[in-house]
Design brief:
Elements: E1 5-7, E2 13-15, E3 19-20, H1 26-38, E4 43-45, H2 53-63, E5 76-81, H3 88-102, E6 109-112, H4 140-153, E7 159-162, H5 166-175, E8 182-186, H6 194-202, E9 206-210, H7 232-241, H8 245-255, E10 259-260, H9 267-274, H10 283-290, E11 302-305, E12 308-311
Parallel strand pairs: 3-4, 4-5, 5-6, 6-7, 7-8, 8-9, 9-10
Antiparallel strand pairs: 1-2, 11-12
Length: about 325
């Protein structure tokens, strides 16, 4: 089943629903990507930090290219620059490494994964003895300027942001030669992001939702925390439409004009997650789901200090989540 599209400021058409690959272990992600492509997905979301791009590339080589079932231009492929490679001298090599792992000559979209730079080097999470992260002082505007050269070279068709707040997005827009086309952020009914969505949309920046289903498999979830897809109100809406809870939530995103990338490794769920075009939520359903909003982030690294949880990177000068949105 094909899906609806969002038109980016470059004119590119990005499928509204893609396959997310975060937390998909290398042994499983190849089969997940194959199942997605075979079921009509044309949007795969990747990142160097997921440590599985080589396995995604194995699947792409089986399905995409001359003599295969898909042409490269039929697929929208996203990857992300990790925090340890923000220094302008590291950006091109990082991008080329993702291209090599994925086995493609260009990316449709390359995102800056976070506005925060970590210490340069091959260690993904450079840590001090106490577990705190070693940071670098590279400013994200300098990283952005280096990313713009990737567009100039044809290595990527467009560039964008991830986990940027409204103020940081505006700073990039103010200095950009190539404007960010997307800001990919955590978004689900518990964190509806309406203010950021409006802010970005007014500036021609599309919003993509990661963890659009509330990431029920997040390893740090505490006992008793609410599970979005287990909410009886979601289940009742799903029953009325003859759909799954996941399909209802994905449809909510699509009707808001948001790009979403649900992650699954289960072929039946991968198939179901794309089957969201044959029904439409009513205004009442949309408002009910929007009322779930608690402005609660579920996907943000925390550490315990003095008996309470705090943001692990809260002291980084470019930590994005101190701002209201």
């Amino acid at each position: 089943m094909s899906c609806t599209y969002v038109t980016l400021s470059t004119g590119q058409m990005i499928p509204s629903v893609g396959l997310g690959t975060w937390k998909s272990v290398p042994a499983q992600v190849k089969q997940a990507v194959l199942a997605a492509l075979d079921n009509g997905y044309r949007h795969i979301d990747c990142a160097a930090a997921y440590s599985n791009e080589e396995n995604v590339g194995e699947a792409l080589r089986e399905r995409v290219g001359p003599g295969k079932s898909l042409k490269r231009e039929e697929l929208f492929l996203t990857s992300k620059l990790w925090n340890t490679e923000h220094h302008p001298d590291d950006v091109e090599a990082a991008c080329r490494r993702s291209l090599t792992h994925l086995g493609v000559s260009y990316l449709d979209l390359y995102l800056m994964h976070w506005p925060m730079a970590f210490e340069r080097g091959s260690v993904m999470m450079p840590s001090n003895a106490d577990g705190s992260i070693r940071y670098a002082d590279t400013h994200y505007r300098d990283t952005w300027k280096a990313m713009e050269t990737l567009v100039d070279q044809g290595l990527v068709k467009a560039i964008g942001l991830s986990n940027f707040n409204a103020r940081q997005t505006d700073l990039i827009l103010s200095i950009a030669r190539h404007k960010p086309v997307v800001n990919q952020v955590e978004c689900h009914p518990f964190l509806a992001q309406q203010q950021l969505l409006t802010h970005c949309r007014d500036r021609g920046v599309a919003v993509a939702a990661y963890s659009p289903l509330g990431s029920p498999d997040r390893p740090w979830a505490s006992p008793g925390e609410p599970v979005l897809m287990g909410d009886p109100r979601i289940k009742e809406i799903a029953r009325q439409y003859g759909k799954t809870a996941a399909q209802v939530i994905i449809r909510w995103h699509v009707q808001r004009g948001i790009i979403c990338i649900p992650k699954s490794i289960t072929p039946s769920r991968i198939q179901q997650n794309l089957q969201v075009l044959d029904f439409q939520l009513t205004d009442e359903d949309m408002k009910l789901i929007e009322s779930f909003n608690r402005n609660e982030r579920l996907i943000i690294p925390t550490v315990e200090k003095g008996g309470r949880k705090i943001y692990r990177d809260g002291l980084h000068p470019h930590f994005p989540f101190h701002d209201p949105y």
